[in-house]
Write a structure and sequence with these properties.
Distance between the termini: 19 Å
CATH topology: Glutaredoxin
CATH architecture: 3-Layer(aba) Sandwich
Radius of gyration: 14 Å
CATH superfamily: Glutaredoxin
Largest sheet: 2 strands, parallel
Helix content: 25-40%
Order of helices and strands: HEHEHEEEEH
Number of strands: 6
Number of domains: 1
Strand content: 15-25%
Structural class: alpha+beta
Length: 102
Amino acid sequence: MDEIRALDSEVLAISIDAPEQSRKLAVKKRLSFSLLSDPEAQVIELFGLRHPGANPMGEADIARPATFILDREGNIVWKIIPDNWRIRIRPQTLIDQLGLIE
């Protein structure tokens, strides 16, 4: 996280989980970034990230693990949306992409 902050950037995560569940996860994992809840999937729908029926614990929907980089005006300047919900971006990939943005 220090490398990301050094690039004048911050990380925000958005989850389809309920706020209390997100809070417990943030405490348990000692997350050093904001974990926002979107239990109604409004933001997730807006970005086309709902993965219907993909929850391995049942038939519930999950959100695809997308990563977006936004500029100061809120425009998306880079993104990656894996087809497989198990795939996550490597931190160094994010740092490298942030370093390319002016």
